[in-house]
Each structure stands twice: as C-alpha cells, then as structure tokens.
Design brief:
The protein is α/β, with parallel strands linked by helices and 319 residues long. It contains eight helices and twelve strands. The protein binds 2-acetamido-2-deoxy-beta-D-glucopyranose (NAG). Keywords: Carbohydrate metabolism, Glycoprotein, Hydrolase, Polysaccharide degradation, Secreted, Serine esterase, Signal.
Length: 319
C-alpha cells in the first residue's frame, strides 16, 4: 500500500513539472519517468536508456504479467538492458496499477483505438518516447509476458501503425477476453485462459481489425494486412509468440494455436514447417509462410513463465 501511495504521489507531483527531455533522463539505470502526457488509466513508467545511444534508436515496449510491475519485468529481462548499447535501443517498462496489476485486455475502452483505456495510455507512452529520443518510428517493438503478451496482441491490433514487430510470451489472441468483467485471474471470466474461446482465423482477424477501424488500402481486398492511416501507409506488425505446454494458467494447446490462427489470417500465411530444438533444446519453432511475418515457439515441458529470449527477440525485431 505504501509503495502504491508513493507512486501515486510521485505521479501527481510530476504533472506540474512536465515531461523530461532526453538529456535529463539518467542513463544506464532503470529510471522512473514522472510525467509524459495524458495518462487515462494511471500507468507508471520506468525506462532504461543506455548512455551510448546513437542517432535514431529503436524503442522496445516491454509489458509485465499480472501481479507484476515494470521494475520487476526489467529484472526478468535484464538481457535487454545489457544489449541496449550494442543494439541502440531504449526499453520502456510501464506498470499497470489496476486489476491485480494486469493490463486491461477486456473492456471496450482498451479494445478500441483511442478508447481511453490502457492501450491508449501505452500508445501515448510510445509516442512520447519516440519523440523524446528522436527514435526511428519504424523501429518500435513490443514484447510482454502473460498479461503483457495478451496486451501486446491488443496493441498490435489497436495501434498497428505504431509497431513493426511483436514477440510475446504465454498469452492469448487479441480480443479473447472481450466482454470479460476483468483481465486478472481473479476478476476475469476464465473461458479464454482455459482455452475455450475458439474461432476461425478469419473470425479472429475480424476481431483484430475491429479494434482500429482504419481506412483500408486499395487493391488488397477488404481489411487485409495493409491499409492506410491518415495518408500514411501502415501494416500489421510481424508476430512471434512463445508458449510452454506445461502452462496451467493460460492453456497452451488452444491459446497458442488460436493466436497463430489470428495472425496467420491477418498476414495471409499458413504453417510451412517446424524446426526442432530451436532456439534451445526442447523448443520447436513453427514457421508460417517464409517465416518473415509469423513464427510460433512451442516450449516443451515449460510452464507459464517462458524465460525471455532477448537475443532471439532482437533478431526478430531486426536490430
Ligand atoms: C509442429 O510443431 C508443433 C508444436 O510442437 C506440433 O504441435 C505439430 O504437430 C508439429 N507439426 C508437425 C507436422 O510435425
């Protein structure tokens, strides 16, 4: 309670000071950012920026799971911080303070572009960081574990123009919890986590498209992978998703498969081959199409927490 009160106080005090400039943000250390603009769901933000940042860095938005926090996820994904200098990126570690610290992947406000929910708050953070660090807008990526993976899929759907690639761990398809009273193991309708929400790829793709009713591009048919946003070309980010089959919190067999169906339909790719023992023994890489848009990693015998493979993620992001 005390910790939360302090965070709230810090957030309130900071609004009057305004958002910091890049040069005012301490480097090589996880730092809390007091203010960055509108924050409809009271998110907290920490980030890690290396001192040796060069021109046009990349941005990685990294989302914790339920009962977690940005600093906790920073500890669990130390590899990003270690690699941030050599790969030239800033990593953003926001925290949700609502609903057992889960990201809202259920309410219409979060499942709608600019609906004023957590997804809107995260988009504001990404835009602020991109401007502040003069980042390359084509090098903005998202990762997350559990609730953070669920939210990664939501962000890729509601803000496809912001992200180029997703790598997420132990989640569910975008929109799987739509209509649930909450997003946490305590508040949610458990049907999705238990793998009981099944749809065709095309039905899942419609759920994705429904979150950001952006004008569609010409010539590619209704709502395919490409479109047009305020005169700017955009397309859905490429997606890589990881899941352990010993996961008793978020059912592997269906949620992994349903996510692959969802993004397979969006990117119009089908399963082509498996690569066994990739990237580590016991894992199977499932390649869709030529492997440039969609990949799944089945982690044999691994539970709900699939350890973050930071180097594989960076390779997927192309940085
Ligand atoms: C490919 O790998 C997945 C995940 O391990 C497995 O479920 C599927 O049966 C494999 N497919 C083939 C044809 O080996």
């Amino acid at each position: 309670m005390l910790f939360k009160s302090l965070i709230l106080l810090a957030g309130t005090a900071a609004v009057t000071h305004g958002a910091p400039a890049a040069n005012d943000i301490p480097r090589d250390v996880l730092t809390q950012i007091p203010s960055w603009g509108s924050n409809p769901t009271n998110l907290v933000l920490h980030l890690y920026a290396p001192s040796k940042l060069t021109a046009k860095p990349a941005i990685i938005l990294a989302l914790h799971g339920c009962f977690g926090s940005g600093p906790g996820f920073a500890d669990a994904t130390k590899g990003y911080q270690t690699l941030s200098s050599s790969h030239n990126f800033v990593v953003l570690y926001p925290s949700s303070i609502n609903d057992n610290n889960c990201w809202d992947v259920a309410s219409p406000s979060s499942l709608t572009r600019d609906g004023g929910g957590d997804s809107t708050g995260l988009a504001t953070i990404v835009r602020w960081a991109t401007t502040t660090f003069n980042a390359d807008p084509k090098k903005v990526f998202i990762t997350g574990s559990s609730s953070g993976c669920m939210m990664s899929n939501v962000m890729a759907s509601a803000y496809p123009d912001l992200f180029s690639a997703v790598s997420c761990y132990s989640g569910v398809p975008a929109g799987c919890l739509a209509g649930s009273p909450g997003s946490s193991p305590i508040s949610a309708d458990q049907s999705c986590a238990q793998g009981k929400i099944r749809k065709t790829g095309e039905e899942w793709a419609e759920v994705v498209r429904g979150m950001a009713p952006l004008p569609r591009g010409k010539g590619k048919g209704k709502g395919k992978g490409k479109g047009n946003c305020k005169g700017k070309e955009w397309k859905y980010p490429k997606v890589q998703t990881w899941h352990g089959d010993n996961d008793f919190f978020v059912n592997y067999f269906h949620n992994f498969e349903e996510q692959l169906k969802q993004w397979g339909a969006i990117h119009e790719v089908e399963w082509t081959r498996n690569e066994t023992n990739v990237p580590v023994p016991g894992y199977t890489k499932m390649v869709y199409g030529d492997g440039s848009k969609l990949v799944g990693y089945h982690a044999n015998g691994v539970g709900h927490v699939v350890p973050q493979e930071e180097e594989v993620d960076l390779e997927w992001f192309g940085i």
